[in-house]
Amino acid sequence: MKIRPIREWNIIGRSKLWFTISSIIIIIGILSLIFNQIKIKQPLNFGIDFTGGVMMRLDFEKTADVASIREILSKYGQGNSTIQLDQRDKSIAVIRMMTVKDSTEVDKIVANLEAKFGKINRETFSIDLIGPTVGAELRRNAILTVSIALLLILLYISVRFKLKFGLATILALVHDILVTIGILALTRVQLNFPSVAALLSITAYSVQDSIVVLDRLRENLKFKKERQTFAEIANKSVTETWTRSFNTSFTTVLAVIVLAIYGGVAIRDFTTILIAGLIAGTYSSIYIVVPLLVLWEKRDERIIRSVIPSQQITSGEIKAQRAQKIESSKIKVSTGKNETVGSVPKEKQKSKKKKTVRRR
Amino acid sequence: MRKIKWGQLIVLIVILVLAFWSIFANFKSIKYGLDLRGGVHLVLQASQIVESPAASSGAAEGQKAEEKKAQTPPQEKKEPQQQEKKTAEEKPVAEQPSQTETKEISAGDLDRAKSVIERRINALGVSEAVVTISGNNKIIVDIPGYTNVEEAKNVIGRIAVLTFKDEKGNVLITGKNLKNATFTYQSTKEGGVREPVVALEWDDEGKKLFAEATEKNVGKTIAIYLDQEELMAPKVNEPIKDGNAVITFGSGSIEDKTKQAQQYAALLRGGSLPVKMNFIEERIVGPNLGRDTINKSQVGAIVAIIAIMIYLIIIYRLFGTIGALALILYAIIYIGFLLAIGTVFSLPSIGAVILSFGMAVDSNIIVFERIKEEYGKGRTLRSAVGSGYSHGITAVLDSNFAMLLGMAVLWYFGTVQIKGFALTLTAGIIASLITSLFFTRFILETLSITMQTVNEKLFGLRSSLS
């Protein structure tokens, strides 16, 4: 009878890699935002819910064509409208006008289009006319709501865990939002009212994901062995929770992908945001939150004795350890490789070298 | 020795029965949002009309003014009408509403505008139209299954035409000359009984016209029309020269008459709304456009459930099968719950439902993983299940609570649609906690107690003890 060693992945040791990956994605996103600003005059593809204007889906009797529609729109000074025809049914036109003031103008335009392409189907059309002030309010409301939610969540995690845990979660959340916004800029998915709901659920989901990992870290810290570094415990924790983090997120992504397939065009933009955010959220809960915490702990003190008040170490000891740390510059955070703190039993080191990357 | 907790099973059965009952009771009347069932959605923003203060008295003064002593009745809280607070003696002091009111839209004005709009929409002959006040200056009008937006806007947006007609139908005078209409009390000639009345007040032109009209029609009725609808046809008792008249209500109890007088006063005033309404948002959706989305998302929900069930069974074997069963129960409880609270399904809330299905299994996965881990450390299945729950539960509760916190913020600060989304997700979180704590836990604990030998392959378990 023997105890099988727990296989560990070296996740914390490659923190730099994870941070780099995230940075690259975020930088690509920011570049896309700038590119969009130059090219389409707005950083993201804001829909009329944000910008105001008119969005029409018109189902004509006859096949329509973009050039003729634009010609008619030009008569009303709407030549710069976005016009799209349905891929499968060319008699369905989706038209977006930016600067329409009232619906009488819209009616004139529709009447003109009807004269050319036949009556529109009153069963399957839609016209949205949004005033310019509505969007500003929506934006303000969304930012306010997210800020308050973030503050409350920070408070909650600080109470249930530690302030640092809360800060790391919030930073990861900012990461998720940046990544998602970057992907939105890159794909130019149109943002409308439901997108706000999607973005808000991403924030909630990301926090939920991080908490599952943090919960394990909290537990492992409680039962930590002598001389175990924070980095070691953190690495152990993320390895242990990796499978469940993946599986919980995968089932959710699975549901959202099904929604994207069956939900039709109306729901597709919504699901794109969700999928991007879910993946970013899962990634960040493992590869951002915990490495961030390790980075902080490393800066503060090597050994996390302070977590357990009874084992409080003196400030002198911490200083000594810090000095030790500075001497050995460019230490890798990884478990096993980090030999600066105390002496890790040789047996243990061996077992760690046997780590395999395969895990079910 | 742990015992089987039958109590959990009973709670679960009760919840399931309630859920089934809710589904059967509400299934035929599932409410869909305008984006799915089609209709007209209008948002109106009120702005103050800048008026020059009128010179003459604002108090209602009838031909029996000397007898009148107005007072504020207790029923009047809903409609702030400054004027009725005044007694007849104070009346010469000019106190027009346009003077005393600030530029802000008062709640009373918005309320009045709302009731006028409601009345006008009913004239369209549509059912289920909903008029709601949003924020401090907006009115939202939702008319399901209706697409004639021009007609709707005309009806809502037009300035109500108040006309006074004689018995032959000739228009004697219109609402544009009516300066004010207020609800008040007056004493009757016979005794000192206070009687609720509507006091009319005319401008200079109106006074002349009204004097003529009443002179010609003494003993006859003058019908008052709001748009095409006859509101009432009071009888003219005597010519009214000074333009100040009261309308009395003949029969009925004081309460009835008070109610009537209040309502009519508001309606007559509504002919000249004190606020200007602008349409800032208009959405029209054809009735068949969303039907496709409804059908597709129903299929989508079923496919999503099946996909998750298959994944669970592959990864977690027998545990996964229990989790898959739990997902079915979850779907029943969740849908039952949503129908019971009268959820209106719109695009975002359908998204929330399917997202919830994905998250529903999360707490089970967390616990399954924990049990596998504990078993891997060399524990027995029974002990692993026990410690799987006692350890896993903190992660489950903490993560779900953080989610609920986020949703509470959304609900509190969000607009109507966002509120719906937050509520749908909240219901999902609660339903998932119920299934994982009452169903999965019960089954796992019962299994671990009753099973004599553990087939590791069946459970997808691997013990370190070999």
Topology:
The complex is a heterodimer of chains A (360) and B (466).
Chain A: H1 15-40, H2 48-51, E1 53-59, H3 66-75, E2 82-85, E3 92-97, H4 103-117, E4 126-130, H5 132-160, H6 163-187, H7 193-222, H8 230-262, H9 265-287, H10 289-300, H11 315-327, H12 346-353
Antiparallel strand pairs in A: 1-3, 1-4, 2-3
Helix pairs in contact in A: 1-6, 5-6, 5-7, 6-7, 6-9, 6-10, 7-8, 7-9, 8-9, 8-10
Chain B: H1 6-26, E1 31-32, H2 34-37, E2 39-48, H3 97-100, H4 107-122, E3 130-134, E4 138-144, H5 149-157, E5 162-165, E6 171-174, E7 178-187, E8 194-202, H6 204-216, E9 223-226, E10 229-232, E11 244-248, H7 254-270, E12 275-285, H8 289-340, E13 344-345, H9 347-360, H10 362-376, H11 381-413, H12 416-450, H13 456-459
Parallel strand pairs in B: 1-13
Antiparallel strand pairs in B: 2-4, 2-12, 3-4, 5-6, 5-9, 7-8, 8-11, 9-10
Helix pairs in contact in B: 1-8, 1-12, 8-9, 8-12, 9-12, 10-11, 11-12
Walk me through the structure.
The complex is a heterodimer of chains A (360) and B (466). Chain A has 360 residues and is of the alpha+beta class. Chain A folds into two domains: 12-40 and 142-300, Multidrug efflux transporter AcrB transmembrane fold, CATH 1.20.1640; 53-130, ACT domain (Alpha-Beta Plaits, 2-Layer Sandwich), CATH 3.30.70.260. Chain A has twelve helices and four strands, in the order H-H-E-H-E-E-H-E-H-H-H-H-H-H-H-H. Chain A has helices spanning 15-40, 48-51, 66-75, 103-117, 132-160, 163-187, 193-222, 230-262, 265-287, 289-300, 315-327, 346-353; strands at residues 53-59, 82-85, 92-97, 126-130. In chain A, strands 2-3-1-4 form a four-stranded antiparallel sheet. In chain A, strand 2 (82-85) and strand 3 (92-97) form a beta hairpin. The relative contact order of chain A is 0.13. The model of chain A is unreliable at 328-360 (pLDDT under 50). Chain B has 466 residues and is α+β, with helices and mostly antiparallel strands. Chain B has two domains: 6-36 and 287-459, Up-down Bundle (Multidrug efflux transporter AcrB transmembrane fold), CATH 1.20.1640.10; 39-282, no CATH class. Chain B has helices spanning 6-26, 34-37, 97-100, 107-122, 149-157, 204-216, 254-270, 289-340, 347-360, 362-376, 381-413, 416-450, 456-459; strands spanning 31-32, 39-48, 130-134, 138-144, 162-165, 171-174, 178-187, 194-202, 223-226, 229-232, 244-248, 275-285, 344-345. Chain B has a four-stranded antiparallel sheet with strand order 3-4-2-12. Chain B has a four-stranded antiparallel sheet with strand order 6-5-9-10, covered by helices on one side. A three-stranded antiparallel sheet of chain B has the order 7-8-11. In chain B, a hairpin with a 5-residue loop joins strand 5 and strand 6. In chain B, helix 1 (6-26) packs antiparallel against helix 12 (416-450), helix 9 (347-360) packs parallel to helix 12 and helix 10 packs antiparallel against helix 11 (381-413). The radius of gyration of chain B is 33 Å and the shape is elongated. The two termini of chain B are 25 Å apart. Residues 50-102 of chain B have low confidence and may be disordered. Strand 4 (126-130) of chain A pairs antiparallel with strand 12 (275-285) of chain B.
